[in-house]
Known about the structure:
Distance between the termini of chain B: 10 Å
Strand content of chain A: under 5%
Strand content of chain B: 15-25%
CATH architecture of one domain in chain B: 3-Layer(aba) Sandwich
Number of strands of chain A: 0
Number of helices of chain A: 11
Order of helices and strands of chain A: HHHHHHHHHHH
Number of strands of chain B: 9
Structural class of chain B: alpha/beta
Shape of chain B: globular
CATH topology of one domain in chain B: Rossmann fold
Mean pLDDT of chain B: 82
CATH class of one domain in chain B: Alpha Beta
Mean pLDDT of chain A: 89
Low-confidence stretches of chain B: 229-248
Order of helices and strands of chain B: EEEHEEHHHEHEHEEHH
CATH topology of one domain in chain A: ABC transporter involved in vitamin B12 uptake, BtuC
CATH architecture of one domain in chain A: Orthogonal Bundle
Distance between the termini of chain A: 50 Å
Number of helices of chain B: 8
Oligomer: heterodimer
Radius of gyration of chain A: 19 Å
Strand order of the largest sheet of chain B: 5-6-7-3-8-9
Amino acid sequence: xxxxxxxxxxIAGLGIALVTGPLGCFVVWRRLxxxxxxxxxxxxxxxxxxxxxxxxxxxxxxxxxxxxxxxLIQLQKKTNLPGDALLGLLAHSSLAVGLxxxxxxxxxxxxIMGLLFGDILAVTTDDLIIIWTGGALILLVLKLIWKPxxxxxxxxxxxxxxxxxxxxxxxxxxxxxAAVIAISIKMVGLLLITGMLIIPAAMARxxxxxxxxxxxxxxxxxxxxxxxxxxxxxxxxxxxxxSIIAASLVLFIISLFKxxxxxxxxx
Amino acid sequence: MSxxxxxxxxxxxxxxxxxxxxxxxxxxxxxxxxxxxxxxxPNGSGKSTTAKIALGIYKNxxxxxxxxxxxxxxxxxxxxxxxxxxxxxxxxxxxxxxxxDEAIDEALTLTGVIHLKNKNLxxxxxxxxxxxxIARAISKKPELLVLDEPVQGVDYTGEIAxxxxxxxxxxxxxxxxxxxxxxxxxxxxxxxxxxxxxxxxCCSGSPMDVAKNNEYKTLFGEQASQILSVYEHKHDHVHxxxxxxxxx
Lengths: 267, 248
């Protein structure tokens, strides 16, 4: 039952969940879910670049996502368009350009479904190294910028006034978002990465009364989703990425009962 | 009178423009250790803007700001906190600096909200939240306190107690305070230096100087002269030395 690929997938998934847990909390707190989506869509362009230039997928996705994030910040400064319109513009145009480029690469066998929804079979030992070292780096940097990032999430002006340099923390956080998408794209797929970021964090919000607890529950939720999702994908022969996200949805639904209880207690 | 190194923040002819409209311009003021500088002026006169210039929140300003300390406590006038965050009073106290538990308890006790320590920030009333904001700012033992309408929404007796607390903190911590208040009574009794704003500096000086100033009287009308009498009474009593030195 424990085929080699399955163990690899499990280790990869657990590594990703450790990183998406805390980052996902910030995505929920800072209302960045569409930002995550946009970066994930742009990852398709990164993947095609990887094939064209023979680069590692993680590196080229990271580069393209970072560039898209920078373009977004510039557009926000220079146009009068609202943020969600700019996000939509970048998300769909980079997705479209990515698909068009794939059309030109017809000579390469391309598993588009695996790219969109993730693929257990695609996880190699090299991927594990990328996920775990990349993930450890992301968590380390996040720990370093935690204070200014969290303070500016609560209130930007307080953080700025009291000397925490929130702009720098925000810029670094943006890069971390690009990095987490880069390391998890093969596993979860570009359409579902944002789900991995948001759903465990949203579940954790339902059962937490402090930021630390929410981060911990979000990590636990992510780990559980990976285990449950992968086992059921093996059992029912479903694809891995969607199964993980579906498992996290089940956990979210269970967490709703906890809210109902605490509301009852208050009344 | 003051040596250079007691200066905490200094604005030189500072101003800020947003969408081609000056919010405030030509402000010069200095906050020194152990001194309370108060900004007064009508709504929209640029009081909060001046505070934000002093704090370095606004970047593209005219003139210059020299800030000599990084230990700053700030109580903003408006604070929009996203209540989707699970945040207890305790977490909020640790927002910008890791403070020891005793210091947190002490500050919360001073502002009278220690019983709310483990409550969710989103469930507090306006006045309670204001007391938590003040507690957070003072618990860091800052060198510079910037208080923008710090007692808004606080009940009347609490208001007086909090102003006394602010005065006491300025004495015990020897920190400089930049205070924004429209309670002229407090301003005139507890302040070392008053800056009267109306898009620019109308007049400034010791409370006595400002109270006598004609522009100040035009801005605040009847109320101003009443406060003046209150002020003079207390002034003779407590602050006469300081006041005279300030006049230069």
